[in-house]
Amino acid sequence: MMYWSQRMSTSPEIHLARAEDEIVTVLSQWLAYHLSNGELRQRLLDIGTADLAEDPRDAVAELLDELEEAAPGERGDLEMLARETLEVVALG
User: Fold this and answer.
1) Are 86 and 32 contacting, i.e. CB atoms less than 8 angstroms apart?
2) pTM of the entire structure?
3) What is d(CA 20, CA 55) in angstroms, rounded to the nearest whole number?
């Protein structure tokens, strides 16, 4: 008796991350103290906001403006703004 199985691909699946998912991940990393202010700002710039809806795009833009003005290591009000941005981006 012969058995046949469906051939499996050996190439890795390609998952293109959505900007929203990447932004949520980066904000979560910053909130967990895994990224500095400068690293967060640069990663957000690298991800971009062109694919976001208006409200999330505005929230990220506001956070980027605040990060540009913030001193290295400053968190205070940035944490609240980052959490609000995370919520707006996650909920779309």
Assistant:
1) no
2) 0.81
3) 12
